[in-house]
Amino acid sequence: MKPMNEITKNLTFVIGILLISTLMSYIFSFLEFQEATIIIIYMLGVIIISQFTTHYLFGFLASLLSVLAFNFFFTHPLYTFNISQPDYLFTFFIMFIASFLSSSLTSKLKSEKRLSQLKTNQVLLVEAINHSFQGNELSVALYASINLIAENYDAEVNLQCSWGRHDYTLSAKSNTAINLGQSHEAEISLDKNSIGKLSIRSTFSLDATWIQTLADLIGQNIEHLDLMEKQTQAKLEIREQKMRNDLLGAISHDLRTPLATIIGSSDTLLENLDQINLNEQKELLENIKQDGQWLLNSVENILSFMRVEEGIKLNMNLESVEELFGDVLSRMVNRITQKLVLNLPQDPIYTKMDIQLMGKVLINLIDNASKNAPAESVITLRAEIKGDRLIYEVIDEGMGVPENMKRTIFERFASVEKIHTSQRKGLGLGLAICKSIVEAHGGRIIVKDNIPRGSNFHCEFPYQGVET
Amino acid sequence: MTKILLIEDDHTLRSFMRVLLTAQSYEVIEATDAKQGITLALSLPIDVIILDLGLPDMDGLTVIEQIREHIQSGIIVVSARDKENDKIFALDHGADDYLTKPFNAQELLARIRVSLRHRTTTVQDTLESLMIRDIHIDFDKHLVFVQNNEVHLSPIEFEILSLLMKNHGKVLTHHFLLNKVWGSQALENDVQTLRVTMANLRRKIEANPGIPEYIRTEIGVGYRFIDS
Asked: Could A422 and B56 be called an inter-chain contact, meaning their C-beta atoms sit closer than 8 Å?
């Protein structure tokens, strides 16, 4: 799109069409057609020229040249610019006016068409910019917008804006942007405050109001996204609030129920000792012990949940799975009424893990299994290497997990009531902790059905064989 | 023998209540979930039901709704939740009283005794007068004596005091009092009016209104006349 090229191209076109007109006129004149036909042929040439050249001046030039060519080639004396009859002057004048008027009419039509095309372009650009803000992250949307402007106007576009905790300096340049004109700037506002500016250097001369319109458009979209962001933030805060409430609910349930037993039982022993027999006294004492243990468990779970929530710091070391299982077994064997069976492969497994936290996972899983399985049934703790995965499973013969809860059971408080219904006490805080720890180790945890009955809590981790 | 139905899913809590109540010579019947509890409540002549609101299969509040119309038993609600709304709902739907976990044994026994007393003397509307601790109230003549000294109460104060004394030992919710005294037009925000009336009433009958001996505030729920 070089201006010089443009002129040469147009001039070549003018001369070409004039040559063709002259040639055709020559043929018609040879066939002894009247001069009027020749004038019309020239006028047709001028209209064609106006239609396809980029400036009305070329139409004017063509009109002038046509009259001269007509004079030179077709009026007596031939091949001179002299004229034999004075009334030719009048013919020339009419011919010039007629062809010039038709040429400018054509130019006007053309420029109107171009204008409407430009407007359509503007509408399309506005739509495209609006579209780029939909569902996109702010920085992506902003970059997409200035890129659109740059492509549309063969321009170099710079955008600088900052508000709140946002700060953007972006620029885009069209590949075909050369011979850039001077830079135009427009303010971008958010809530009527200026937050930055949009500057455009284009090949075309752009209207200042249009650039302001573009800047306003970007501003409006930023405002909209900003509002949405604030709403999302508010929703997050509500969720956060709900989590805190759920935590309080969990604490009130997990702590108050065993406390009710402990306080009630000890109160009964103190105040009504003479009214209850030895067996009952023993029962009350056992209740106190059992719920004391439960309470300790709940407190530990709440504390580790809070710690996990703050972010897990893993203390990874190369550990033996056998030792992990052995430690868990010794800690759990007296705490549960079920039989705990270990199932380990023949070859020892060594893997990197935080053994404290992994122990907590297994203890919580066994605890959970024990709550749901009948006394004297078997709880199996097994490990297995399967390809590049290390698998731990805690399998019980209890009532299993209903299909609709298999996902939600690991969510922190996601289904407080539902989890509650399947267990005697507790709110699955333990399982939420397990999930966080397993995921921190790059693994995943799911619950499956155990055949013929019970559930299988299945954890798997990436495993690379370790040389020992 | 007085029959008490325990509807409680927690094993150890149920066990402690069973030992305690059996020692008091109550006959204890146990249910571990709501369905079993409802069946037992409807099929046996139960005197008092102790109902945990956090049951595994059904909300305890639903249990109250399902059984209240069919039986005369007293209902004492036990809850780990400290949501006042649950307590108020339970009380307004026919529970006699509530206990928040943890509670002590003597508290439970006291609530059971109050509930039993109200079961045996249901028709108290025909009472002419009542003497509880140092307060004598004459329903006929609209007179109130505290330690034999007459105190002058406004009609509304008298109405509130007589409701509390007729139901001594039992918690009456704001909603219940407002309905009885101001009628069904009473709005929830009239609780403020109730508080003001209660403050005036206390000034007249309590030696130290800041530390009331007779009318205890159950925060967020209502008021209770202390009978012992």
From this structure: yes
What is this structure's pTM? 0.56
Nearest Cα to B35, choosing from B4, B51, B58, B14? B58
- The answer to whether the Cβ–Cβ distance between B23 and A276 falls below 8 Å is yes
> Per-residue confidence of chain A (468 residues) as pLDDT tens digits?
445 677 888 889 899 999 999 999 889 888 888 888 888 888 889 888 888 887 788 888 888 888 888 888 888 888 888 888 888 888 888 888 888 888 888 888 887 887 788 788 888 888 888 888 887 788 888 888 888 888 888 888 999 998 887 888 999 888 777 777 788 889 998 888 888 989 988 877 778 888 888 899 888 888 888 888 888 888 888 877 877 777 777 677 778 888 999 999 999 999 888 888 999 999 999 989 888 888 887 788 788 877 777 777 888 888 889 989 988 888 888 788 899 999 999 888 889 898 888 998 999 899 888 888 888 899 999 999 998 899 999 999 988 888 888 887 887 664 434 443 434 455 567 888 898 889 889 999 999 998 888 999 999 999 876 655
Topology of domain B129-225, per CATH? Arc Repressor Mutant, subunit A (1.10.10)
Q: b/e string for A231-265 if b means 16 or more Cβ within 10 A?
A: eeeeeeeeeeeeeeebbebbebbbbbbbbbbbbbb
Under an 8 A CB cutoff, do A264 and B13 touch? yes
CB contact, 8 Å: B82 with chain A?
yes
A435 and A367 in a single domain? The answer is yes
What CATH number is associated with residue A268? Answer: 1.10.287.130
SS3 A187: strand
Does A291 contact B9 at a Cβ distance shorter than 8 Å? no
Q: Please judge whether B103 and A263 are an interchain contact, meaning their C-beta atoms are less than 8 angstroms apart.
A: yes
Chain B residues with CB-CB distance to A290 below 8 A = 12
Burial class of residue A175 in the structure, from the number of CB atoms within 10 Å of its CB (0-12 exposed, 13-18 middle, 19+ buried): exposed
Helix (H, G, I), strand (E, B) or coil at B159: helix
Q: Which of A267, A270, A289, A337 is best to mutate for the B interface (most B CBs within 10 A)?
A: A267
Q: Looking at domain B3-120, what is its CATH homologous superfamily?
A: Response regulator (3.40.50.2300)
Q: Which residues of chain B have a CB within 8 Å of the CB of A422? A: 56
**Domain around A162:** 125-236
Interface test with B, best of A245, A262, A265 (most B CBs within 10 A): A265
User: What is the b/e burial string over A155-170, where b = at least 16 CB atoms within 10 angstroms of the residue's CB?
Assistant: bbbbbebebeebebee
